[in-house]
Write a structure and sequence with these properties.
two-stranded antiparallel ribbon; homodimer; mainly alpha
Chain lengths: ~130, ~130
């Protein structure tokens, strides 16, 4: 599977909604089609795109052929993102720092007036440690 | 910016290569075009797609109009992936566990014959802690 195919498959809201549904558990094409007010062939087409991208698989054994999420392609996206994490981790750290400064200034003027801003500290960080 | 636009922009190897180049520092369109053996208009077209997707920005001030990575859209992809991390974290944990079992069995039969498999432990885990 290539990142081209994966990103291309993910660039569609219906396909992402199908993945979100499958994140709750494997299911049939019929059940997947229901909330989308789409024909079965239309849903099947989306499933084929997801399947070709390695994002889902369909059982060949069970008669109801359940679909399920395949993690490999999503993991590839995550690995690709690794090269860029430092950009948003850094920039969000700067924002946090700015918000803290802002809040400190406001708190000094208006004590007990503002709710505590939820800021991210290094300790609770979103950053992925290698 | 929508995930549709972001994923669609990322579904192209040249555009991902441009991002990889920009990860090393901001640069001009001329410098970006060089390694691709592409015309400036062709590169500019890719840059416009990346810019519309909020993945890069171009300075309006400096005369050489440097391009740089914008982290927000990449962060959105990362946040979207959060819903699926447990799938590959779990499945890779199962694989790790299987490899460990396999290795333990082989090591017992052929001591000092196999290199140590690099396995991920919970402590060094890839998983993002919230």
């Amino acid at each position: 599977m290539s990142l081209d195919t994966t990103f291309s498959a993910l660039a569609d809201p219906t396909r992402r909604a199908i993945l979100a549904r499958l994140a709750r558990g494997e299911t049939t094409v019929q059940d997947l089609a229901e909330p989308f007010a789409m024909s079965l062939p239309a849903i099947s087409k989306h499933l084929k795109v997801l399947e070709r991208a390695g994002l889902i698989s369909r059982s060949r054994e069970a008669q109801w052929r359940p679909c399920r999420i395949e993690p490999r392609a999503l993991k590839d996206v995550d690995d690709w993102l690794d090269h860029y994490r430092r950009f948003y981790d850094e920039s969000f750290e700067r924002l946090d720092s700015y918000l803290r400064t802002l809040q400190a200034g406001r708190s000094a003027k208006q004590p007990n007036k503002l709710p505590r801003t939820k800021v991210r500290t290094k300790e609770s960080g979103h950053g992925r440690k290698k």
